[in-house]
Amino acid sequence: MRDYGKALEGLEIETFYDSNGLSQRCKTFLYEYLARKIKQEVDDCDSLDTSYYYEQTANVSKVLDVYWPNIDRDEPAAMFIYPDLAARDKGRSGRRGVRIGRALRKMFPELLDHEIDSLVDTVKSKLMPREYTVHTGTSAKDFARAYSHTQVAPENLDTSWHKKHMVNSCMRYSFDHMPNHPAEAYASGDFEVIWLEDAGGRIGGRVVVAKSRAGVEIKPKAGPIYAVSETAYKKLSEFISFAEIELGNNRDWIGCQLKAIPYRGGYIAPYLDYEPRWLVEKYAGGSSVTKLEISSDGDIDASQYNGLLATGSRHRCLECEDEVDENYVYTRDGDSYCETCYHELFFCCDYCEEDMSRDEEREIHTVNRWGNNTQSWCEHCAIHHAVETESGESWDEDHVYTTGDGIVISQDEYDNDYFMCDIVEEIYHNDQSNDLSCGGRASAYGISWYNMNDFTTKYVYDAMNDHWVLEPREQETKESA
Questions:
Q1: What count of other Cβ atoms lies within 10 Å of the Cβ of residue 202?
Q2: What pTM does this model have?
Q3: Residues 312 and 282 sit within 8 Å (Cβ to Cβ)
Q4: End-to-end CA distance of the chain
Q5: 238-264 CB burial, b ≥16 within 10 A, e <16
Q6: What are the per-10-residue average pLDDT scores of the chain (481 residues)?
């Protein structure tokens, strides 16, 4: 059983907070989202009843009243909240913008990491929808842009046969080591590309459509739709439906031709989404090859991810020079590797999920639903998304804290050696902990700060019970009188 009011433990809050004129849209959305979640918990667990539902939804409402979350379309990575009660007393000037995930975790620490991640994606897609513009084209430049230009930040997407996530596309890279992008081979006249761009020109989705076979017009057949989000997928799906373009299947592209782009004894061409994934050379006078036709009888394997296709079915490992069957070959930057050599040279970054050189591997500490663990990150992700703590360890930026003394500590150190002062809501080492008569804990600084700023009560040390007691100041006034 979870307590959705955990963020308010130890806080003396008012029974009602006004909005200061702030929008309630984000606050209402979060309440409705969590209320549905709590209702599902009740439905799934026999030991919970409606009293749990009403108690926890009331807690959710209190938390949202205190922190009053809001979003800003101009800052899509941030959520604005009151970080503490003192900031709330300042009105609008006290609000701060923090990463959406961190804001949600502060308000609802009882949610698991994967629940926070899912809620972040939902907030982005529901409260900050992107506006996309549809583009179409048939030129090599159009295909290259749709495939390899900067993409919109990805969100969760349920995939299927015709619905693919762009982060999983093997053709999304720039292929700068080759004179042409493999997708440019589609610019033969038989294919058209349809893609989405946001206001900043970033790519949100794409789909390739076969419109003719060897120049003869056919009923358009679309390949799988690649998108970064459900919103982008829906936009493209609705567009091709309105244009009366059907989603294709295996064999629908047989007879369609790609542009022949010779390079290093083979051809620059993309991985084909539909079977058969074989191409045959087509000659147009003399001995020059001008087109590559999709055919079940072809001898050019178009199931390769490196963008360079050649006849034959075997490859040679660049590192150990052993021959590797095409079903077991690993490719990177146009080079082929056996499985053993590839994993010795490269690793998959646990943060961006890209394969990177072992030279860039960095050890990063983080926390997931099973507890503390260590991940392998690439150098770029480590620089931009990890923080070095006072102990010298590198931690995921979402699991570090700054103490009241200005020291950066990890989640592990916070759990074992530090505490949150109940008076000033800052973190201090356990060595600085003082027990309060109410059962809380406070730092010496917190007690001193309170005694200097509150004129009705003050903390007094009770040596007999070894704790601090809150007493009225009027007693002190009478004695002095």
A1: 16
A2: 0.49
A3: no
A4: 54
A5: ebbeeeebebbeeebbbbbbbbbbebe
A6: 88 73 88 94 90 94 93 82 88 90 95 92 80 95 97 87 93 94 97 94 96 95 95 95 95 96 92 93 78 90 88 72 76 87 94 92 86 89 90 88 89 89 92 92 93 90 92 62 37
